[in-house]
Amino acid sequence: MKEKYFEDFSVGEKIHTNEKTLSTEEIIEFAELYDPQPFHIDENAAAESPYGGIIASGFHTIGTSFRLFIDTGVIGTTGMGSPGMDSIRWLKPVRPGETLRVEAEVIETRASRSEPGRGIVLMEFRTFNQENELVLSMRSVNLVRRRDSGNF
Amino acid sequence: MKEKYFEDFSVGEKIHTNEKTLSTEEIIEFAELYDPQPFHIDENAAAESPYGGIIASGFHTIGTSFRLFIDTGVIGTTGMGSPGMDSIRWLKPVRPGETLRVEAEVIETRASRSEPGRGIVLMEFRTFNQENELVLSMRSVNLVRRRDSGNF
Do A81 and B51 touch (CB under 8 A)? Predict the structure, then answer.
């Protein structure tokens, strides 16, 4: 996808990512570092948990979703970071072998009052599995360079 | 720290974690997988960015904070996952060599209407650097097993 400056984002526009399949190994490797709860890292404990088997850490689902978004290239050199996110909802467990894709919808755009070189793009991320079930939604505030802002 | 069931959490209580120092290698390794923006993975591009050098992905800061919380053992086998998080604010960049610690305050506890074996513990996570500056805050909804709920 062509890189966009702040001025290029329109409310209602949807950005569609590629897909990513999460393996058992990736799920366990992530969770051992960042979320070592039994139902993320231990097959036996997970089998006896309410989830009935290993599920991906919600932080892994978020990271995977954001990686898919970055891989679109839409804010390749125009992205300037983020002050925050809101309304993260893990709606369904993500299990090994599931394939995720993201739809990122532009909800609002506004100029920055304090920094004339950038604008704020509010996006709703929706992550779906291979059955087109919504597994994650979240609102992400993105700082994006303006076209006329000179070098980054 | 001793493991807690739902009934053991009190509003206003604060849980303090150990510390974790993030190395350049860890920051780049995480970001290459989950947030490959130039100011997280490329020393030269980062030096020319508004951040003036590499900073940790905000998702890495969140994951590190949650790992520190899990390492307290407070929900070792009583944690039952989470439906979501709110109000994530990345308040200051986290740079290589910085040392993070977390204070997790119990904001609200309530029984689950649909699942009598669990309760909901709403926590505010605050992550500080070695200068005691607040770098991240977020609200996390945690499902926690009740003491009288039988086996997990």
Answer: yes
Paired residues of B126 in beta bridges: B103, B137
Residues 6+ apart with CB under 8 A from A17: A65, A68, A69, A71, A72, A101, A102, A103, A104
Query: Tokens representing B132?
Result: 């005691």
Maximum pairwise Cα distance, chain B: 57
Which residues does residue A101 pair with via DSSP β-bridges, in sequence order?
A19, A128
- DSSP state, B92? S
The answer to whether the complex's ipTM is over 0.90 is yes
Q: What is the pTM of this model?
A: 0.96
Spatial CA neighbour of B58 closest among B82, B15, B91, B97: B91
Describe the crossing of helices A24-34 and B58-71 by its angle, rounded to 10 degrees: 70
Per residue in B2-52, pLDDT (tens digit) is: 999 999 999 999 999 999 999 999 999 999 999 999 999 999 999 999 999
Query: Could you tell me which chain B residue has the CA closest to the CA of A64?
Result: B34
Task: Give chain A's contact residues with B (Cβ, < 8 Å).
Answer: 33-39, 48-51, 55, 58-59, 62-64, 66-67, 70-71, 75, 77, 79-90, 151-152
Q: How far is the C-alpha of B40 from the C-alpha of B95, rounded, in Å?
A: 10
